[in-house]
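ingest -> validate -> predict -> emit
validate: passed (alphabet ok, no gaps, 331 aa)
predict: started
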Amino acid sequence: MEQFLGMLNAQLVLFVYIAVGMLCKKLGIIDEIAKKKMTDFILKITLPCMIFNSFNQTLTPEILRKTGLALLVSTCIAVMSYVIGKFAYNRFPEEQKHIMQYCTLVNNSGFLGLPLVSAVFGTEGLLYASIFILPNRVMMWTAGLSIFTESEAKRKRAANQGGSASALDPAEEKLRQKKEHRKNLIHNVVLNPALVAVYLGLIRRLFDLPFPAFMDSAISKIGAITSPLSMMIIGGMLIGVRLRDLFDFAALYQSLFRLILLPVIALAIMRLLHFDPVLTGTSLILTGMPAGSTSVLLATQYGGDERFASKLVISSTLLSLITAPLLMLLI
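emit:
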């Protein structure tokens, strides 16, 4: 019950941030250009600062053991998410199926999950969360990216069969995709700002590197604005969206897997491993996060259904504001 009340309080605070974001969008303070700039600012500056600050504590053998368990569970969930996505959406059109696969595989654990964990469980939970998101981020830019590239390749092959000319030889096209995939993998996994913050935080703690107090304070305060800013952006997304258009069968079906089934599976694994409440709550929050907003970006980049991807992201985000506190009752 204590975790539930903590999550409920955190969610009510987030609702206030969302309302402010909606007001800012209504007043024209946040437009599309501002939204993009704020998102870049969060992903490249404030979120890495918040993650780096979570390592500002002694890494005891017990904490290292718990982070290892978090990494194990997260890896299992990432693999299961991929397998479930392969079979759960075969009834839907191909154009929707690959987006639903991606939204099941990749969630919004960084943009939304980390601020929530920080609000409920503090720096201890945020430390575990910083490690927990690693497999999800790797899957995002490996298996997740391949979902969109394969879908784009299918569309191109279908277009070429219907036309008179062929673009690239299939072997050449496959080689080009592999090169592009490798380039994206290096850039988005190895050089991703949030993951770089994890590497730097681990190095600092493992080697106990000295750090000026004023820098610690500045990084902590910069990281603290992540939660308000991210929720304001989500609030801005809701303006002009009719709720009845969001919750169709496809959106509810995908949210069932993303927000309920996967967290319940994660909880079963954590019960078997006898996780403590903080580690359990952290893992449950991150597993139960809504569809990743990168689905919209990739759908746009690879010629997918951008509107359908946006609908899945917004609908699952709204539903998660209800399901996330309820998950805390299961701890």
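DSSP finds 16 helices and no strands in the chain.
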